Amino acid sequence: MLSLGEQWKTVNKSTSEVDLTFLLLRVFSLAAGITWLLVAPLAVREKEILITALIFFLSYSLLCYLIIFFKPGLIKKIYLVSLFLDAAFLSNLIHTETSFAGSFFLGFYLLISLHTIYFGLYFGLGVALLSTACYLLSISHLLNQVAWTDLAVRIGFFFFITVPVGLLTEKVKKDKEKVENFNKTLEIQVAQRTDKIKLLLDQEMYLREILGTVAHINKLLITTPNVLTLVEKSCARFIQHGHYGFCWIGLLEADKIQTVYSSDNASKYLADPPYALVNHDEPFAKSQTAQCIRDNKTIISKHDPKKPDPTPWRNPGEVKGFHSVISLPLRASQAGAPLGALTIYTWRMEGFEPEEIEMLDELAGDIGFAIDSFRQKEAVAALTAERTANYEETIYSFVDMIEQRDTYTAGHTERVAHYCELIANEMGVDKGGTEKLYKAATLHDIGKIATPDSVLLKPGKLTKLDYDLIKLHASAGFEMLSKIEMYKELAVIIRHHHEKHDGSGYPDGLKGEEIPLLSRIIAVGDAFDAMTTNRIYKARQEIPAALEELKTYSGSQFHPEIVNAALKVLADIKISTTINQLPSTDLEKKRFSYFFNDKLTGFYNEDYLKIILNNLDLNQNKCLHIIHLLNVPEYNKRLGWAQGNLLLKEFAAELPEVFPDALIFRAYGNDFAAISKAHLPIDADTLNALPSIANTEIMAEIDHVDLLAGKSYSIDKLERLEIIPADVCPLRN
């Protein structure tokens, strides 16, 4: 039951200003009646009638308003009842008057006006009719004293008041209805807008939860050490999200789900794998997850408890109550084949939001990428373990790589390893250290795999850029080997084999005892072999001269202790005089032709001609023909460069028939050279008869030079190519 204060609030909500006017009118009428009773000179009988009427009026008024207070919903019915009581009350008062001139009839005007305002025009007309009837009955004893015109005026005013007040009331009511309708529409719109805002806020909070889940799992991608930990923790984190009741990840292998993980013990809910994707005799092949993997796309469905679920549940009734399911392919890349699938069950009535689906799709891609990365990492680790287990085999595989690239370098590493072993034994290095040194020396130039042939085989002096590229091989070798656990010690030795005793070496500028002992030994063995073998750009030194040079640089470039040991053990070794960097295999010849190739004719260029001339004792070439074409500039000027190039190509194509079994070079544009082991009697007439120049203004001149082994020759180019013998020919460093 409501308290009086709460009841009063209820009455206030149910009433209006007109209801207050009704109440005030009653209070005013009662006060007026009491005042009249006290002030007006009334006869005893009139006073008794008035007192009785006022008591009746007060009683039924109190009763009416008590009912309204406790039952405000009956207010209109109470007003109807009070209308008849008020009409009876007024009729009684008027009936007590002894003269037509009394003013109690004015109460009917108030009664008509109030009810017209409250109930409207038509009801007001009814009240006017009721008032007319009551008034006529109340003055029936005075009708013989009343002029009909006075009576008509009074009764006419009943209706005269009703019509304008009623019309005004109707207008006010319509306006009020419009305002109320507008307010209701506005309230509905505000309510709808409020509901929408609330929905958006709820949606935002929900998506924030999803974002938190995604952020946490993204952190797992970085911190977890393996696939098992990643997928198990990811599933567990999904379930911490309030609306996700269950999720599982299946990983694919050979067209079957071979491994499953879930937020709980997978075997508790899911049957043991494998699950076939394409065998439609098995229920799983018809499942949403299988379709997701087959189609390589995200699949979302509403759960229908009436339809059978092909998911391989151990107990189909164990996971229930979910409304939607999403299956997302796990891929290493957007266009990659699926590695498996992530399936999530939501208990949320609305299912998955579009933004949620987008975030989950991106997260599934990240998980797939992480799984693929872990697998690649595991594969690399397995490969590394295999290579480590086959340590010696790997070492010699690197040696094979060196030999296939450059037979000279392969022989160089073998010789350096041998020299280092001799020096180490002389110095008393233990067996383990000597073995380690031998392996490091065998691989000390492995970093040159990253050095271009155009630098390694360059016949002239190295530029600063060339030298900087060469110097990178020590660091490159270190980087290649240091990533393998059992190669790390070798990698450090290889890194520092070009450090110098005075600190001027590379890559780290170490000096003295800072340089590892085995690196110091390799530095001496490497330098000794470089001095005692023929290089493209420099002839070899005899062993005594090479040892003397080691002594010269002892204390600056080399550690004195290492040099002293080398002087003892290297003095009597035998070194082949035929070691050189000239190509011996077809592969090397192809590589040389690429780097020393004339692009127009396909012959060797003048750089390779210089190499051949500086290695005559090795290549046994004895005959040199120099061919100079005259009038080429005039020909080009007349017919154009393109036609001139075409003529040179045709002329070059004819030369191998003239000089069989010879090395042919194009040097400096209009000059050619042919070197052979046997003398070829070729004259200018033979060349000028070649079809390419026979009918042109181009003329060929030819010079012959007998080449002598051990003699140096230089190339000079003024008007034409010349080969100049010299007792001493400056060599390029």
Question: Would you give an account of this structure?
Answer:
The chain is an alpha+beta fold. The protein has 4 domains: 4-185, no CATH class; 224-384, Beta-Lactamase (2-Layer Sandwich), CATH 3.30.450.40; 391-569, Hypothetical protein af1432 (Orthogonal Bundle); 596-726, Alpha-Beta Plaits (2-Layer Sandwich). Helix content is 58%, strand content 11%. It contains 27 helices and 12 strands. It has a 6-stranded antiparallel sheet, with helices on both faces. Strand 11 and strand 12 form a beta hairpin. Helix 6 packs antiparallel against helix 7 (148-223) and helix 14 crosses helix 17. The longest helix is centred in the first third of the chain and has 76 residues, at 148-223. The radius of gyration is 58 Å and the shape is elongated.
Please specify the SSE layout and strand pairing.
Layout: H1 4-14, H2 17-39, H3 44-70, H4 75-96, H5 106-119, H6 121-138, H7 148-223, H8 227-240, E1 244-253, E2 256-262, H9 266-269, E3 275-276, H10 288-295, E4 299-302, E5 324-331, E6 338-346, H11 354-389, H12 391-405, H13 407-427, H14 431-442, H15 453-456, H16 464-482, H17 488-495, H18 517-531, H19 543-552, H20 560-569, H21 586-595, H22 606-613, H23 616-619, E7 623-630, H24 632-639, H25 641-658, E8 663-667, E9 671-676, H26 684-688, H27 691-694, E10 699-706, E11 712-717, E12 721-726
Antiparallel strand pairs: 1-2, 1-6, 2-3, 4-5, 5-6, 7-9, 7-10, 8-9, 11-12
Helix pairs in contact: 2-3, 3-4, 4-5, 4-6, 5-6, 5-7, 6-7, 7-8, 7-11, 12-13, 13-14, 13-18, 13-20, 14-17, 14-18, 16-17, 17-18, 18-19, 24-25
